[in-house]
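stage 2 :: seqdesign
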């Protein structure tokens, strides 16, 4: 598969809240996925500048980095609070992750959500034309396509949802659920991480709008056709594997080894977010030390979790909870020369993390709900094929659909976590190699480039 899927005349216009503008943000998944196509098609990336101003303009500022054009816009404090912290992260994020209990349904938030979606639609209309392929990312912009269509936009426009689409009755908890879903149907292609998400969205559209599935798998909603596409995101697996043996990785691994001594490393790497199941994971490790005193002093668990969106109350609470739990576990089980759990509330460079993954005997990826989870894939890519570590993966991560050779566990069950860690630490080399080989083959085949091509191919046949 080649770039032929995007007609040469068609420029890619990507829209996401955060972009890869600035060197340091270019290492991540989306940037790797989109950069080449953007550069090859003289493409444009539209997003938030990261700045909050008293009187932000409705326009975007253009800049250029290594062949990729950016159009970045600013938010006001009210827009940031209402659109980003409010509707996006206190309504959509919790509900889509099955946490209706954490949602804050404040009607003022929705007004800012509409305002920012309108602002971005206006920027797209100014900066793009009908021959461009517009690819919108994530839950911040569910309405953007619909606003564009209302204003007469006829160009190709697709959307990828990075987070889960929940069961219909959960989605219905959002007061504006019908408007949001109608908004989604204005896109030509809607990409979803896993089959469960697709089934949930299809069921919702059938029940709510009488959507009809067509022989080609597209859905007809109010006379428009929308293609729901199963399109699991991947990583740059070969790039990550290389990074894991490079100098910064080795240096980070050496630093951690000094602390570990002969002990086996169990690692966790997550943004600090309530969807990631961190307290349950810590309890699982406590359960392990409770059940198996013979493992005391033999295993060290290191959790890396930089705070995210720290202004939102739930995140501050989570931070306190983790501080208390790790203190308790070290107090209960630790010894003069052994700290059972280390919890580092900061981020590390991607290259360093690759080295830490490679050093680990096991990786705990135990979200309570996750669109995909790239850490699971990165851990596998970073392993030494001759002596690979073992992935312990939540059944509720989108990645579990593809990564069946991991030890799949229920993240709410601390005894299951404890037993899986023991099994991982004691797993014979043959079995570790066998599981790893199958997992690696899968993530190498369905990598980030495969993902982008799969999405772009779905545009073929869409009439602009
Ligand atoms: P996230 O919820 O951010 O992404 P994830 O898929 O795990 O979750 O990606 C996190 C990325 O950040 C990984 O590349 C990881 O290496 C990095 N990272 C995590 N903790 C870090 C740390 N402490 N220091 C440095 N880097 C760290 C959303 C969805 C996911 C979906 C992705 C992509 O919630 O389900 O997989 O988008 O679609």
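stage 2 :: out
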């Amino acid at each position: 598969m080649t770039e032929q899927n995007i007609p040469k005349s068609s420029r890619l216009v990507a829209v996401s809240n955060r972009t890869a503008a600035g060197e340091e943000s270019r290492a991540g998944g989306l940037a790797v996925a989109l950069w080449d196509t953007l550069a090859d098609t003289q493409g444009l990336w539209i997003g938030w500048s990261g700045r909050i101003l008293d009187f932000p303009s409705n326009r975007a500022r253009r800049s250029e980095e290594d062949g990729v054009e950016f159009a970045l816009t600013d938010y006001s404090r009210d827009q940031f609070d209402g659109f980003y912290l409010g509707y996006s992260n206190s309504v959509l994020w919790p509900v889509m992750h099955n946490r209706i209990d954490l949602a804050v349904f404040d009607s003022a938030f929705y007004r800012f959500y509409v305002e920012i979606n309108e602002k971005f639609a206006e920027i797209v209309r100014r900066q793009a034309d009908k021959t461009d392929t517009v690819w919108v990312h994530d839950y911040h912009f569910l309405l953007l396509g619909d606003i564009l269509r209302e204003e007469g936009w006829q160009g190709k426009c697709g959307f990828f949802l990075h987070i889960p689409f929940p069961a219909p009755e959960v989605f219905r908890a959002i007061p504006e659920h019908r408007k949001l879903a109608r908004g989604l149907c204005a896109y030509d292609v809607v990409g979803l991480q896993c089959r469960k998400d697709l089934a949930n969205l299809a069921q919702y559209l059938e029940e709510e709008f009488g959507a009809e599935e067509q022989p080609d798998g597209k859905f007809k909603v109010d006379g428009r056709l929308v293609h729901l596409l199963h399109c699991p995101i991947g990583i740059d697996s070969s790039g990550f594997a290389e990074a894991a043996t490079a100098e910064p990785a080795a240096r980070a691994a050496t630093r951690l080894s000094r602390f570990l001594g002969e002990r086996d490393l169990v690692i966790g790497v997550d943004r600090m977010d309530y969807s990631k199941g961190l307290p349950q994971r810590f309890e699982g490790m406590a359960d392990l030390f409770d059940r198996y005193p013979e493992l005391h002093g033999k295993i060290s668990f290191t959790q890396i979790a930089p705070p995210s969106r720290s202004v939102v109350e739930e995140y501050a609470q989570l931070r306190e909870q983790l501080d208390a739990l790790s203190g308790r576990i070290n107090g209960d089980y630790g010894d003069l020369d052994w700290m059972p759990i280390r919890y580092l509330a900061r981020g590390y460079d991607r290259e360093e993390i690759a080295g830490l993954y490679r050093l680990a005997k096991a990786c705990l990826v135990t979200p309570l709900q996750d669109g995909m989870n790239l850490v699971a894939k990165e851990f596998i890519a970073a392993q030494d094929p001759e002596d690979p570590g073992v992935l312990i993966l939540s059944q509720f991560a989108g990645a579990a659909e593809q990564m069946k050779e991991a030890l799949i566990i229920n993240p709410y069950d601390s005894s299951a976590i404890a037993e899986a860690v023991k099994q991982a630490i004691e797993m014979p080399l043959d079995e570790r190699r066998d599981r790893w080989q199958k997992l690696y083959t899968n993530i190498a085949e369905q990598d980030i480039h495969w993902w982008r091509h799969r999405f772009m191919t779905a545009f073929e046949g869409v009439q602009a």
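stage 3 :: structure notes
- Residues 1-7 have pLDDT under 50 and may be disordered.
- Residues 28-29, 162-163, 233, 269-271, 304-306, 347-348, 353, 370-375, 378 surround adenosine-5'-diphosphate-glucose (CB under 6 Å).
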